[in-house]
Amino acid sequence: MSSDWIETTLSLKKDQTLREVEPEVDQARQIDPSKTSYEMCTENGEVVGFIKTWEEEDGYAGYVHFDSAGNVIDWKVMRERRKVS
């Protein structure tokens, strides 16, 4: 899922950006290209949250927003890039 699209639905502070997290390469697991993870970072590099996303071929997509301690802050589910819930 595009970080540009996520940024339009999140309330990021001016000093925050999303940085994509590369999936860990593991012989026992396959990387799922429909899922992406991001770190929410301040301009000085401090991680203040995380975003886990998914996007299916039929347009069903969403994300979960976590704070830096791993607590769920928000989640969104969309169909064809429109907010459903």
Strand-helix topology:
Elements: H1 3-9, E1 16-21, E2 35-42, E3 47-55, E4 60-67, E5 72-79, E6 82-83
Quick recap of the structure?
With 85 residues, this protein is mainly β. The protein has one helix at 3-9, and strands spanning 16-21, 35-42, 47-55, 60-67, 72-79, 82-83. It is built from 1 helix and 6 strands, in the order H-E-E-E-E-E-E.
Task: Report what the structure shows.
With 85 residues, the chain is mostly beta strands. It has one helix at 3-9; strands spanning 16-21, 35-42, 47-55, 60-67, 72-79, 82-83. It has one domain (3-83). The chain is built from one helix and six strands, in the order αββββββ. The protein is globular, with a radius of gyration of 13 Å. The model has no long low-confidence stretch (mean pLDDT 81).
Salient structural properties:
single chain; 85 residues; 6-stranded antiparallel β-sheet; 1 helix
Could you list the spans in which at least 5 consecutive residues all have pLDDT below 50?
Answer: none
Spatial order of the strands forming the largest sheet: 1-2-3-4-5-6
List how many beta strands DSSP finds: 6
Helix content: under 10%
Mean of all residue-level pLDDT scores = 81
- Spatial separation of the terminal alpha carbons: 18 Å
Structurally, the number of domains stands at 1
> Cα-atom Rg, whole angstroms?
13 Å
| Total count of helical runs of at least 4 residues | 1
Order of SSEs, N→C? HEEEEEE
Characterize the main sheet: 6 strands, antiparallel
